[in-house]
Amino acid sequence: MDFIKLAASRRSTRRYKKDLPVPREHLEICADSARRSPSACHSQPWKFVIVDDKTLSSKISKHVVSGIYKMNSFASDATAFIAIVSEKVKTPAWAGGKLMGTDFSLVDAGIACAHIVLQAEDLGIGACILGWFNERRLKKILSIPRGKKVKLLVAMGYPEEKSVREKSLKPREKTVSFNGYDLP
């Protein structure tokens, strides 16, 4: 599939086929795609924790995307998850981030997640990036060390139905300009 078609066809999946697990090989391909994504100073400040165990997925459903995180309760039907956990950044990336007022590890996590969800789309797997979840509980369930931070969580599974609805985008002239912010 060419990239623009892939990017245009991808949607955040919020309805999954509960009884159709994602093969481990496909989850590994998604994580490998993320592992190859660019990062500031090639820090690769991440660890991808893949969850394909039914018991752990059930615990995530009950304790991580419920309660005040209920808006993400749709993820309870996902059959797999990938947690993006922070790792140490290289000193130049950290220093540059401080000077620019930007946490490049967050940018890097976002790029890695984009690779995950685009790779998933290419494999026919639905995915949704979650930034609102009970991190404390997730860390406990997945035995993530105390000093680490779960930046994002990706819910994955086969979509109940493929969305054919056109993605509504702002007009190009509102989001793209050449050679200056608003120059003609």
Summarize the structure.
Helix 2 runs antiparallel to helix 5. The longest helix is centred in the middle third of the chain and has 19 residues, at 104-122. The protein has one domain: 3-Layer(aba) Sandwich (NADH Oxidase), CATH 3.40.109.
Number of strands: 4
CATH superfamily: NADH Oxidase
Strand content: 5-15%
| Rounded mean pLDDT score | 93
Assembly type of the chains comes to single chain
Categorize the overall geometry. globular
Spatial gap, N to C terminus: 34 Å
Q: In which range does the helix fraction lie? A: 25-40%
**Low-pLDDT runs:** none
CATH class: Alpha Beta
Under CATH, the topology can be stated as NADH Oxidase
Radius of gyration: 18 Å
Q: Total number of helical segments?
A: 7
Strand order of the largest sheet: 1-2-4-3
| Biggest sheet architecture | 4 strands, antiparallel
Structural class based on helices, strands and sheet pairing: alpha+beta
Order of helices and strands: HHEHEHHEHEH
| Number of discrete domains | 1
CATH architecture: 3-Layer(aba) Sandwich
Structure, described:
With 184 residues, the chain is of the alpha+beta class. It has one domain: NADH Oxidase (3-Layer(aba) Sandwich). Helices cover 38% and strands 14% of the residues. It is built from 7 helices and 4 strands. The chain has a 4-stranded antiparallel sheet with strand order 1-2-4-3, sandwiched between helices. Helix 2 packs antiparallel against helix 5. The longest helix has 19 residues. It is globular.
